[in-house]
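Whiteboard transcription, Tuesday session. T.W. wrote the structure tokens on the left side:
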């Protein structure tokens, strides 16, 4: 088997607020984007071709994939965002080979576990071989040595869940069942009921970004630094004016270079805290703001550091909200979402209201008076985090 298919098109709603900006296949897991890890693994296991079925934020996923240097033949298929996984496969399957491995973009296993799984699948006579992980409550189990798959419910009597890495021997038959059921889970149930499903149990660790809770557990040993946007990551516009289009956006390259070089081996992720009242004033569209922030996140990934989420106040100056800096609402939300400890969080901004917001949020604040002194501020941050400078 030399071909894989990766489902990477969903919106990743269980990973909000990360996926408000980053599409799920590009979410770091925890250091490098999951799709990059999967592709590198396939290359190590001598796969030759991979189909990647994308949907949500297609152009950004494509942009990142095109920046990778891989020996694999990568075929990107864009699918409508609203499609289910089964519909994506049906839509894309005309060029799939007779057999392939079906993967999800939110699960990653070790190379050793993949080797065992592939070897077991080669020895099997079943049409479908599934990789499962033990859980207290799941949807895969055994009855009289026969695999049981529950398509819609979970039970303590079926104490496994499937993880992807599905080995499909006869793709025409598999896709005929998909066409009939329009559901991956109903198709799995059919193969289980017809005694045509083999199950391999995962022995090692699973890296999963299937939900924010699992993601937080994954990055529990990483540090988090909060950054202001305008005046830090990009040049600040004149008073009462805003970045309204790409013509207005100017990266502060010295800051980006510092983050790129300083965070390579220090296990640091970034969250952005920014006031954008231009939206309330009708000067900035929400669509452009989202596109800008996604583009900034992709650029960071390509440079080797991770911007996980943007926390944005789009209210006007006099809207009496609780999120506009110097109030701490955005900081408190970030701390809650990512289960951070206030004593370990630092916020770097360029105005006094950033310092006031940090103080009100119970975290340390640093003020970079200019782009030129950001490098010195960053050295202070590394010292406070007890990381090598």
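and on the right, the sequence the group agreed on:
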């Amino acid at each position: 088997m030399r071909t894989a298919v990766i489902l990477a098109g969903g919106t990743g709603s269980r990973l909000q607020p990360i996926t408000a900006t980053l599409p799920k296949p590009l979410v770091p897991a925890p250091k490098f984007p999951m799709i990059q890890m999967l592709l590198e693994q396939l290359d190590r296991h001598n796969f030759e071709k991979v189909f990647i079925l994308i949907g949500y934020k297609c152009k950004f996923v494509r942009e990142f994939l095109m920046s990778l240097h891989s020996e694999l033949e990568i075929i990107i298929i864009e699918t409508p965002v609203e499609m289910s996984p089964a519909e994506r496969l049906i839509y894309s399957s005309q060029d799939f080979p007779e057999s392939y491995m079906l993967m999800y973009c939110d699960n990653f296993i070790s190379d050793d576990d993949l080797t065992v799984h592939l070897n077991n699948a080669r020895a099997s006579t079943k049409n479908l071989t599934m990789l499962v992980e033990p859980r207290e409550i799941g949807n895969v189990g055994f009855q009289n040595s026969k695999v049981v798959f529950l398509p819609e419910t979970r039970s303590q009597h079926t104490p496994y869940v499937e993880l992807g890495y599905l080995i499909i021997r006869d793709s025409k038959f598999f896709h005929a069942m998909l066409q009939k059921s329009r559901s991956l889970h109903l198709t799995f149930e059919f193969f289980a009921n017809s005694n045509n499903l083999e199950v391999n149990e995962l022995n090692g660790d699973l890296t999963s970004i299937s939900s924010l809770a699992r993601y937080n557990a994954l990055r529990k040993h990483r540090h988090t630094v909060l950054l202001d946007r305008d005046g830090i990551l990009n040049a600040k516009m004149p008073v009462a004016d805003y970045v309204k289009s790409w013509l207005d956006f100017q990266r502060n390259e010295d800051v980006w270079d510092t983050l790129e070089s300083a965070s390579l081996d220090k296990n640091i992720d970034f969250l952005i805290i920014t006031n954008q009242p231009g939206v309330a004033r009708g000067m900035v569209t929400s669509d452009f703001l989202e596109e800008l922030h996604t583009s900034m996140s992709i650029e960071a990934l390509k440079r080797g550091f991770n911007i996980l989420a943007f926390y944005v106040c789009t209210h006007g100056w006099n809207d009496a909200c609780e999120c506009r800096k110097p109030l701490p609402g955005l900081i408190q939300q970030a701390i809650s979402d990512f289960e951070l400890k206030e004593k370990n969080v630092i916020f770097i901004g360029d105005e006094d209201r950033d310092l006031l917001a940090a103080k009100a949020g119970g975290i340390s604040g640093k003020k970079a008076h200019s782009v030129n002194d950001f490098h010195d501020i960053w050295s202070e941050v590394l010292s406070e985090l007890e990381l090598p400078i």
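Someone added at the bottom: Residues 286-303 form the longest helix (18 residues).
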